């Protein structure tokens, strides 16, 4: 029959209180009515039965059992004495300590505790491994350190699955036949050696071993020296008591780490009960008392909390404790122990940690209180420990991991999507790209904005990319010059093009004239950077694209406004292609920003009326119409026309300011010369406006066959191609006399395009003197030969449209204005307002003798158009080089043709 101890229910209640881990706090003083864990000493004569009942209660605790191991100290000491008779009594006690700790570590790290509760004894495992390496007391030989490190490396490899697999015999044989010798050597020898050296510095057990207080190292703090002392401690005459304390401290430190609560250490929060070590039959004879005293001395010396309940048992005859608590005392044993411990303050000796408790004898079978005591004992023996926090459970961990992964995935997806959306809005460029912030992709797919650092606006044209890269490099050179010579101010111009990338379905022909303008601007920039005067500004040019037909010019203007706030060197704008309604909107926005503009090829009469900040280097449509009418009169007088009449063909697109304005000017000019005027509209191929009800360009072209007068075309070059194509197919040997406005210069400058109509000769108005070359006496083309030598073969054709020359002159106009400001007042800030005022002063002796003729604003405040600007007549016939039929205006010292309108200046 099972023995029932008197007041055993109070013993189990005490046991439950000591092993139950608080939910919060742990150290003495952190938990109310708690002051650490004593060494519980059970005094009685029925130790075996008592140990069995305690073990059963701990193993059946709910909701999970308590890690517990019982060790018979008499048996353990007997094994030590028998197996290690070669040791002195002091070292036998150290061996008893080692074996006891190994037994406890094997139990507390056992897999039967579940996946969460086993303790990893890294520090004690290392110390025990070193102590077990050799059992001799002989002096170590010269190879002892190398042998130890080699075996330590093998131990680390065996602990790690990957290296253990690599070093298995079957794997080594396979690797020797399958991988290069260097990979074999690297993977199996060098890398493990390097990792071991690194782990000796970074591994927690290695670092702890050099910091712990026991066995003060005679070696100057190196792991190898200290480890050698552990491999043969008796030869080194180490103190066995200190070796025992080192083992105990390593064992307890591993427990402390396992129980250390951190938010990210779920397992530590799931440990709701302390480990229990029951040392049965402790006595002086079996060295059990010395072992227990070593435990409490380590606790006193480290001052750390140990998550371990040490229980001992001894007989009535063997105990030597003065104050023994009884289970039925009014003040419970643990409460009495806590009160005594607190009153001792900081002067706590090892004896203060002992809590001896008298276990009463079992009740006899005839005792009247036997059944009641049995019921109380059974109820108290059903120990309960706190359940782990819900958030620390496996399900919660899986759910938390899933949530974290979902959030992380969502965050990553959001970040990727945000990056993608940002890049999509900024033309596919990353945030690190210096051009990204000033570029935007529009709904049409076009990339518009300003690109100072060479971005090609999505164009795949290699020649355009090279041109923009050249300008970007020159911008960097300008910054370098300014750093080296701060007295030379920086001047920045924005060159706005109508089209640098082509919308889907649109031809890419406009890219050529945009590139030529940029090459002209780059040439002017290069010449300015070559100057060395202290007053000579350094020039930067920022290319910009306003999209097809200047439709996004207002977006570009707002981008420039933002840039201007951070960069006061921006003083003006050049470019502004195509006289359209959107161009007028762009001019208005730039006027609001406060930037002067010098347009390159714009010619509509009304543009200057929209802003006092607007200038241009090309002639107006009214002058173009006057020259066209004068030339038609010349042809009529020479008998080239059958009748004195003109058919003005114009675009039906109401947004095309250029075509409609030139039509009106042509009507007035031709009537002034006595011509009969008829007008014919056509539907352009590319337009955003509704132009239904008008014939197409090919239909209009077919109707020109046999027309006896002159056909004057005021539209765009692409539509003129359609008219010529129809006339070439229809008119045969009787082509009409075609004269076109300056926009057709783009067609005349393209040898492959103009050669498509061999039957139809035509003439067009040009803002240059015709073909040029890199060998001629030209500032522009000699510079282009340096910057863009591959363009020289094309210049005889591309120079016909005048885009490079006009852009070159537009930039030089700004440079002339800033130069005059620096001459007049060297310290004057080069602001946009000052530059605008200086532009109007370019006349008389200060006239700019440019590549496209004289630029003279006449000295009148509101004169924004150059006087007597050069216009030539170029004749195209098949694939032959265009021939100049005459020119009007002032250029160098040359005299205009006799049939031209009279000059208006000087």
From TrEMBL:
InterPro entries with a match to the protein in the record:
Peripla_BP_I (IPR028082)
Q: What SUPFAM superfamilies does the annotation carry?
A: Periplasmic binding protein-like I (SSF53822)
Q: What is this protein called?
A: Leucine-binding protein domain-containing protein
């Amino acid at each position: 029959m099972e023995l029932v101890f008197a007041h055993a229910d109070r013993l189990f209640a005490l046991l439950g209180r000591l092993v139950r881990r608080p939910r919060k706090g742990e150290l003495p003083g952190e938990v109310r009515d708690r002051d650490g864990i004593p060494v519980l000493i059970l005094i009685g004569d029925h130790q075996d039965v008592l140990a069995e009942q305690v073990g059963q209660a701990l193993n059946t605790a709910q909701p999970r059992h308590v890690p517990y191991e019982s060790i018979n100290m008499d048996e353990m000491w007997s094994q030590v004495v028998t197996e290690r008779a070669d040791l002195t009594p002091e070292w036998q006690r150290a061996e008893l300590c080692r074996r006891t700790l190994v037994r406890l570590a094997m139990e507390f790290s056992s897999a039967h505790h579940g996946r969460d509760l086993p303790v990893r004894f890294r520090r004690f495992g290392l110390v025990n491994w070193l102590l077990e390496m050799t059992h001799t007391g002989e002096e170590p030989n010269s190879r002892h350190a190398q042998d130890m490190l080699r075996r330590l490396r093998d131990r680390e490899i065996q602990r790690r699955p990957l290296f253990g697999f690599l070093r298995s015999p079957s794997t080594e044989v396979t690797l020797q036949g399958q991988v290069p010798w260097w990979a074999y050597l690297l993977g199996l020898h060098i890398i493990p050696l390097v990792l071991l050296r690194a782990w000796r510095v970074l591994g927690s057990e290695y670092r702890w071993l050099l910091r712990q207080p026991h066995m003060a190292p005679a070696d100057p703090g190196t792991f190898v020296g200290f480890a050698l002392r552990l491999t043969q401690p008796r030869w080194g005459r180490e103190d066995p008591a200190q070796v025992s304390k080192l083992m105990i401290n390593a064992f307890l430190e591993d427990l402390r780490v396992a129980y250390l609560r951190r938010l990210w250490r779920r397992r530590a929060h799931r440990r709701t009960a302390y480990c229990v070590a029951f040392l049965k039959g402790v006595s002086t004879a079996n060295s059990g008392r010395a072992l227990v005293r070593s435990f409490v001395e380590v606790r006193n010396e480290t001052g750390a909390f140990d998550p371990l309940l040490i229980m001992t048992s001894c007989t009535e005859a063997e105990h030597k404790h003065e104050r023994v608590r009884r289970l039925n005392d009014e003040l419970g044993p643990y409460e009495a122990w806590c009160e005594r411990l607190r009153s001792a303050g900081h002067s706590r000796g090892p004896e203060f940690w002992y809590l001896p408790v008298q276990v009463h004898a079992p009740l006899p079978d005839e005792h009247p209180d036997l059944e009641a005591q049995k019921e109380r004992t059974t109820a108290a023996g059903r120990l309960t420990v706190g359940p782990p926090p819900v958030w620390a459970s496996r399900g919660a961990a899986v759910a938390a991991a899933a949530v974290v992964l979902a959030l992380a995935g969502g965050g990553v997806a959001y970040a990727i999507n945000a990056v993608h959306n940002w890049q999509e809005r900024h033309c596919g460029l990353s945030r690190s790209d210096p051009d990204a912030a000033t570029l935007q992709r529009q709904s049409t797919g076009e990339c518009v904005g300003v690109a100072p650092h060479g971005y090609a606006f999505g164009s795949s044209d290699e020649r355009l990319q090279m041109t923009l890269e050249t300008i970007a490099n020159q911008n960097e050179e300008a910054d370098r010059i300014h750093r080296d010579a701060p007295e030379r101010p920086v001047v920045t111009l924005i060159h706005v093009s109508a089209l640098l990338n082509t919308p889907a379905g649109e031809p890419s022909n406009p890219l050529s004239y945009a590139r030529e303008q940029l090459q002209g601007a780059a040439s002017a920039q290069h010449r300015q950077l070559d100057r060395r005067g202290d007053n000579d500004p350094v020039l930067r040019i920022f290319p910009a694209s306003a999209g097809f037909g200047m439709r996004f010019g207002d977006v570009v203007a707002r981008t420039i406004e933002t840039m201007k706030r951070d960069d006061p060197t921006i003083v003006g704008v050049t470019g502004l292609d195509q006289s359209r309604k959107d161009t007028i909107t762009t001019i208005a926005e730039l006027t609001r920003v406060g930037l002067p503009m010098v347009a390159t090829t714009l010619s509509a009469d009304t543009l200057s009326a929209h802003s006092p900040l607007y200038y241009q280097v090309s002639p107006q449509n009214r002058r173009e119409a006057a020259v066209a009418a004068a030339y038609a009169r010349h042809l009529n007088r020479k008998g080239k026309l059958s009748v004195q009449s003109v058919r003005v063909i114009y675009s039906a697109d109401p947004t095309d300011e250029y075509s409609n304005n030139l039509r009106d000017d042509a009507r007035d000019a031709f009537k002034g010369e006595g011509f009969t005027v008829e007008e014919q509209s056509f539907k352009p191929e590319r337009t955003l406006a509704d132009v239904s009800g008008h014939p197409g360009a090919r239909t209009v072209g077919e109707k020109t066959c046999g027309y006896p007068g002159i056909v004057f075309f005021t539209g765009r070059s692409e539509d003129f191609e359609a008219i010529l194509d129809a006339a070439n197919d229809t008119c045969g040997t009787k082509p009409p006399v075609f004269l076109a406005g300056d926009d057709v210069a783009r067609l005349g400058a393209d040898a492959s395009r103009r050669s498509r109509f061999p039957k139809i000769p035509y003439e067009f108005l040009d803002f240059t003197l015709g073909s040029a070359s890199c060998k001629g006496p030209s500032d522009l083309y000699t510079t282009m030969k340096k910057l863009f030598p591959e363009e020289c073969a094309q210049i005889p054709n591309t120079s016909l449209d005048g885009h490079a020359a006009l852009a070159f002159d537009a930039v030089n106009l700004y440079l002339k204005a800033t130069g005059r400001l620096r001459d007049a007042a060297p310290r004057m800030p080069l602001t946009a307002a000052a530059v605008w005022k200086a532009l109007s002063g370019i006349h008389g002796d200060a006239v700019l003798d440019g590549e496209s003729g004289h630029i003279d604003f006449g000295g009148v405040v509101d004169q924004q158009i150059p006087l007597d600007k050069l216009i030539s007549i170029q004749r195209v016939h098949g694939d032959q080089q265009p021939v100049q039929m005459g020119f009007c205006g002032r250029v160098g010292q040359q005299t205009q043709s006799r049939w031209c309108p009279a000059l208006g200046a000087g």
